[in-house]
Amino acid sequence: MLEVKEISVAYGVIEALKGISFTVREGEIVALIGANGAGKTTTLRTVSGLLRPRKGQIFYQGQEITRLSPHQIVAMGLTHVPEGRRVFARMTVMENLEMGAYTCRSRAEFKANLERVFQRFPRLAERKNQLAGTLSGGEQQMLAIGRALMSRPRMLLLDEPSMGLAPLLVREVFSIIKEINEAGTTILLVEQNARMALSIAHRAYVLQTGEIILEGPAAELMERPEVRKAYLGE
Question: How far apart are CA 49 and CA 53, in angstroms?
Fold first, then answer.
């Protein structure tokens, strides 16, 4: 579904990604793990069109999207949930969801998508008229994911969904991610909580200073001594 070929990205003279390549097959959860500054967020921002690579190509469902704008990429069914949630704090929950639904072609489509989001996130339905900035961290993360789901994406890019959440909420969010995948949405997951990411992913890549140093089935990577030492705190 997604193929990234030799992409390099730089911030000025600092090279953030050094010719990385990876694939995500339809129906998978693929995790990108690594330390802070490894290039994980840069990877997602490049795939979603927020950054332009210096070189390399990105293909989504066989079509090159390397130079497309973010709104064109969203319209193709590839949606990005950014790091830090980035909800519109002074807008209501409903208004945030409406912002995610701009690709809907009819009122009926909007209503159907909204119903799906409220079924998955009942708390959002309860708080639909509440300002997003007054929600808890976990509720804001649900809203960020729900906003992305309003466009009915075939693939989700999730950036650090557990950031700043209590352990109980982390488990709840990861359970939701797994359910979304089982319902048919392919997921590329960036997550610093490597243990949680590897526990739900099918495959994973390990990024280190802008390069992929390991890849393979998530269960196998979890057993690698270097992964357990560097990323699982053992």
Answer: 9
Distance of CA 125 to the CA centre of its chain: 23
The two tokens of residue 139 are 């509720």
CB 152 within 8 A of CB 113: yes
Fold (CATH) for 2-231: Rossmann fold (3.40.50)
- Whether 31 and 20 have beta carbons less than 8 Å apart is answered as no
192, burial (CB in 10 Å: exposed 0-12, middle 13-18, buried 19+):
middle
- Cα gap 168→165, rounded to integer Å: 8
> Dihedral through CA 194, CA 199, CA 203, CA 204, nearest 10?
0
Q: Which pLDDT tens digit goes with each residue over 130-181? A: 999 999 888 999 999 999 999 999 999 999 998 888 888 888 889 999 999 9
